[in-house]
Design brief:
It is a single chain. A four-stranded mixed beta sheet has the order 4-3-5-6, covered by helices on one side. It is built from 18 helices and six strands. The chain is of the alpha+beta class and 461 residues long. The protein folds into two domains: 309 residues, 2-methylcitrate dehydratase PrpD; 120 residues, 60s Ribosomal Protein L30, Chain: A (2-Layer Sandwich). α2 packs parallel to α16, α4 runs antiparallel to α9 and α6 packs antiparallel against α11.
């Protein structure tokens, strides 16, 4: 499909600050200028997104949101994952975002501090279908949206996250608006207005972690992106500097870009924009729980591989982590399967008892009250370690015979694309079955060579 600007008169006041720089990147980056590395990385994330979305269609949050949008009905513009219905683009984005994050098994970017694909791909897919874009157009918009979200999320930083905001929903909404603006063919001025509009729509609180509210965040972000870009295309104007101005999103939401020296601090959000695609440092989940627990899982698994230890031999377990994670995945006594995914203590007990942390069926309400696991859980202590990076963890097993075993793991290391692809293929097979995973892999591999029809048909289940 050839992108073209809406048939409206040019808008005034598109801004001159970082939002204008982002808008120019979103609207004017030629497809040929996007590096191969970025395209390969985006295809891997698209594969992962589709696998976890299809596997999550029967989760309660997915069925609830899908029921609501199906009952509302409307123009048949876009596919809803797991349904034969086609619904308005904004509704499809809402449902597909919530569905893809329902299992909390999707990709993570630790600079952005959130889950990028679940917020951005539902918006891009919905508008790709609505506008008749082909597979290459979808991937192009997905990449632009991913990079925008990762830039904004990194710039908002730890301060925003520590204040209680969830970057998947907040920065993710800016990425969803970017992908949507790209597919609607908005020029830089209208794209800046879309960013201004989404700055007043973006929302999401970490207080929802461990509940259905967290996957709902991804749907909110995707729907907000579709809505604000569509309104901008129709001529709705905003303060285009709504992200970075004195009373803008960053300043009012504890972002690193707010306060004294905002413009100086903002330089990093556009530094190397269009050359260095930061989203390629994305990481994938191979355990069906909060990504903050994965280094601990790996460390415990390595210890057990080196020296098998039975639960009854363990007097105490100490898990040392970056302070960021105490407010995220340290639910001391989980009561539901969702809460279990955010509990260092219970997850440590699962690993030490030989339970699979990769299996979706592990995380049930019943697992939280299993007597042997509760006893072991209560011997686990979680603490912080000065100087640790966000992906570092050290675990110590203190045994009844007086011995102490320890292991340190840092997940912040590059993983070759072929290794990620192999692991994601295994993950997709475990989630969907070998035959369905093979069809999905073929559709993703061929996405840039033709229309979206084959890929979309697989998403209907």
């Amino acid at each position: 499909m050839t992108r073209s600007s809406p048939r409206l008169e040019p808008l005034e006041g598109a801004g001159t600050g970082i939002s204008a720089r982002l808008a120019a990147f979103i609207a004017e980056t030629p497809r040929r200028a996007i590096p191969t590395e970025a395209r390969v990385s985006a295809r891997l994330s698209l594969l992962d997104w589709a696998a976890v979305a299809l596997a999550g269609t029967d989760e309660p949050v997915a069925t609830i949101v899908r029921t609501m949008v199906e009952e509302e009905g409307g123009a048949a513009q876009a596919t809803v994952v797991g349904s034969r219905c086609r619904l308005p683009a904004r509704a499809a984005a809402l449902a597909n975002g919530a569905t893809a994050h329902a299992l909390d098994y999707d990709d993570t970017h630790f600079d952005y501090i959130g889950h990028p694909s679940v917020a951005i791909l539902p918006a891009a897919l919905a508008l790709a279908e609505k506008t008749g874009a082909d597979g290459a157009g979808l991937l192009d918009a997905f990449i632009i949206g991913l990079e925008t979200a990762c830039r904004v999320g990194t710039w908002l930083g730890d301060a925003h996250y520590r204040a209680g905001f969830h970057q998947t929903a907040t920065a993710g909404a800016f990425g969803a608006a970017a992908a949507s603006a790209r597919l609607l063919g908005l020029d830089a001025q209208r794209t800046a207005h879309a960013l201004g509009l989404v700055s007043t729509r973006a929302s999401g609180l970490k207080s929802q972690f461990g509940t259905m509210g967290k996957p709902y965040h991804a749907g909110i972000a995707a729907a907000n992106g579709v809505e604000t870009a569509t309104l901008a295309a129709l001529g709705l104007v905003s303060n285009p500097e709504g992200l970075a101005c004195a009373q803008g999103f960053a300043a009012t939401h504890a972002g690193a870009g707010g306060g004294v020296g905002a413009e100086m601090q903002a330089v990093d959000v556009v530094d190397g924009l269009g050359r260095d695609y930061r989203f390629t440092r994305v990481q994938y989940k191979f355990h069906a729980c909060c990504h903050g627990t994965h280094a601990a899982i790996e460390a415990l698994s390595e210890l057990l591989s080196a020296e098998p230890v039975r639960p009854e031999q363990i007097a105490r377990v100490v898990i040392e982590v970056h302070p960021r994670w105490l407010a995220v995945c340290n639910i001391a006594e989980p009561h539901t399967g969702l809460e279990a995914k955010f509990s260092y203590r219970l997850i440590a007990a699962l690993v030490l008892s030989g339970c699979s942390t990769a299996a979706l069926a592990t995380y049930t309400d019943a697992i939280c009250t299993r007597a042997d696991l509760v006893r072991l859980r209560d011997r686990v202590e979680v603490t912080t370690k000065d100087g640790f990076g966000s992906l570092e963890t050290r675990v110590v097993l203190e045994l009844n015979d007086g011995r102490s075993l320890s292991r340190h793991v840092d997940l912040d290391r590059p993983v070759p694309f072929d290794v990620s692809r192999e692991k994601l293929t295994v993950k997709a097979e475990a989630l969907l079955g070998a035959a369905a995973a093979s069809r999905l892999l073929a559709a993703v591999d061929g996405l840039e060579q033709g229309p979206l029809d084959g890929f979309v048909a697989l998403l209907q289940g």
